[in-house]
């Protein structure tokens, strides 16, 4: 597990290290600067004219120390003093006093075309306001420079908490961040602004994160592998679960197909599709392995019987939001007593009928909304969610007791009273119609094989991303279809080096 703290959480770890472990902040600053200098030295950068742009806080102090160390190597260094010296922190003031003893030049204007490398140390992880005025102009000038661009800890202008751009942000080619990646460096657009990320150990104690479930994290490949359900030699289709897929509507048979196909690819033993009669013929033709039960109109008795048959239910993909679909969704919420994945139109129906959420109680639900669907569920705009993603997600899961898979360029998974997990697998190839149907089927299949909601969501999202990567390796990011993702699930699992599946 790798922790992904926000700005406040990282500051708490920093203070804990200084206060409880008795490591002076100036020592940590020296280590941070040395890590940046070492990183730059390892790269084949043009160091003919180095520019370090420094603010007045501790990030600026890091920058002053970097500039001093580079100048002591005999390199040509210019420091652009962006902050007000009267507002220097104690550490920044001390580092500036050491810098003044070197041959580095200190100026107050940035000359865009003069430098071979620009190092950003203007704002650190504590930035909480939108950047305007002279700082916005300065960052724009830095971005227009043709020099190699390196950020110290985090690109100035990126929110450490959310990854959003606070008005304007430094567009780094490389970012040297300290001790652990911050959550804002993993979420878009922060990830793209950071460029290539280097995490440098400078001795900050992060053990306190283990006790704080509000600190997000990401998992290693080995941790995902351990979640994979065991495939027993002495087994049959019933061993791996009976999955009921309630999906599709007129003209939307593909959603049911992708749910069921991906569930089978992910190891489900038996899949039954419940869908309008108009979809029966094509589904029986393209996926003969599935049982197809169809309906012409809503039949609650039949639906309740099917719900009692299933070990797991996956509902909502391509379901539509018509009258019958609303009745189906209401019945599922009321009568389902097994783990249930709710996707797409199922979520849209719930958003219009929030009283149905009262039926959840202690039942096991996994919701798989993309940002717009989550916006409908919460009543908050997509922008509001992006500005406080973790808080909004936690509030929703705690209020309703579900595991939520918030799909985005970086998908976040959170269960009630749990830790938020940021998934790092995947590719832009996944941005295709039907990709979410594949994911819902995969998660449902893992539930059918005995995983809990949190584990099924985590592993499903991770392998879905890996499958997208495998498909893209074969066909490129432009050309893959959702069924190519489903067909790549087996390869994605095999690439984990695991023989259980």
Mean pLDDT: 96
Largest sheet: 9 strands, mixed
Kindly estimate the percentage of residues that lie in beta strands according to DSSP: 5-15%
Distance between the termini: 23 Å
- The low-confidence runs, each spanning 5 or more residues with pLDDT under 50, are none
The coarse overall form would be: elongated
- State the total count of DSSP E strands: 18
Helix content: 40-55%
- Number of helical regions: 20
**Multimeric state:** single chain
Category from helices, strands and their pairing: alpha/beta
Looking across the biggest beta sheet, what order are the strands in? 12-11-10-13-14-15-16-17-18
Any key phrases for this structure?
single chain, 501 residues, alpha/beta, nine-stranded mixed sheet, seven-stranded parallel sheet, 18 strands, 15% strand
Quick rundown:
By secondary structure, this protein is α/β, with parallel strands linked by helices.
């Amino acid at each position: 597990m790798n922790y992904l703290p926000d700005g406040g959480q990282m500051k708490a770890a920093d203070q804990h290290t200084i206060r409880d472990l008795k490591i002076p902040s100036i020592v940590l600053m020296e280590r941070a600067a040395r890590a940046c200098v070492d990183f730059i030295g390892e790269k084949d950068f043009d160091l003919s004219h180095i520019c370090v742009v420094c603010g007045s806080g501790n990030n600026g102090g890091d920058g002053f120390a970097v500039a001093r160390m580079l100048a002591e190597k005999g390199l040509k260094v210019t420091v652009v003093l962006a902050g007000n010296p009267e507002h220097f922190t104690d550490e920044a003031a001390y580092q500036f006093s050491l810098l003044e003893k070197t041959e580095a030049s200190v100026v107050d204007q940035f000359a865009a075309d003069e430098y071979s490398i620009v190092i950003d140390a203007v704002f650190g992880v504590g930035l909480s306001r939108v950047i305007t005025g002279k700082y916005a102009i300065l960052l724009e000038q830095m971005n227009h420079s043709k020099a190699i661009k390196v950020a110290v800890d985090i690109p100035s202008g990126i929110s450490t908490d959310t990854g959003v751009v606070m008005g304007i942000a430094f567009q780094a080619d490389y970012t040297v961040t300290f001790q652990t990646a911050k959550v804002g460096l993993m979420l878009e657009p922060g990830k793209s602004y950071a460029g290539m990320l280097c995490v440098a150990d400078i001795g900050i104690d992060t053990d306190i994160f283990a006790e704080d479930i509000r600190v997000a994290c990401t998992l290693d490949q080995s941790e995902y592998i351990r979640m994979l359900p065991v495939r027993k030699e002495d087994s049959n289709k019933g061993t791996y679960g009976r999955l009921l897929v309630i999906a599709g509507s007129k003209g939307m048979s593909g959603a049911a197909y992708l749910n069921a196909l991906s569930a089978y690819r992910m190891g489900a033993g038996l899949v039954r599709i419940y869908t309008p009669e108009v979809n029966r013929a094509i589904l029986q033709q393209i996926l003969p392995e599935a049982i197809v039960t169809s309906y012409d109109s809503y039949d609650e008795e039949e639906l309740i019987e099917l719900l009692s048959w299933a070990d797991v239910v996956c509902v909502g993909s391509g379901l539509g939001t018509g009258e019958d679909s609303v009745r189906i969704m209401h019945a599922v919420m009321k009568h389902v007593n097994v783990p249930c994945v709710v996707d797409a139109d199922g979520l849209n129906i719930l958003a219009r009928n929030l009283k149905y959420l009262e039926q959840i109680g202690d039942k096991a639900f996994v919701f798989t909304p993309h940002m717009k669907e989550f916006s409908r569920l919460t009543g908050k705009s997509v922008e509001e969610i992006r500005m406080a993603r973790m808080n909004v997600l936690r509030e929703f899961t705690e209020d309703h007791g579900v595991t939520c898979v918030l799909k985005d360029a970086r998908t976040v998974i959170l269960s009630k009273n749990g830790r938020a997990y940021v998934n790092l697998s995947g590719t832009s190839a996944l941005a295709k119609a039907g990709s979410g149907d594949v994911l819902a089927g995969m998660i449902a299949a893992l539930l059918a094989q005995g995983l809990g909601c949190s584990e099924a969501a985590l592993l499903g999202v991770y392998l879905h991303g890996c499958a997208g990567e495998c498909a893209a390796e074969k066909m490129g990011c432009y050309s893959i279809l959702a069924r190519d993702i489903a067909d790549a699930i087996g390869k994605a699992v095999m690439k984990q080096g695991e023989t259980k599946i």
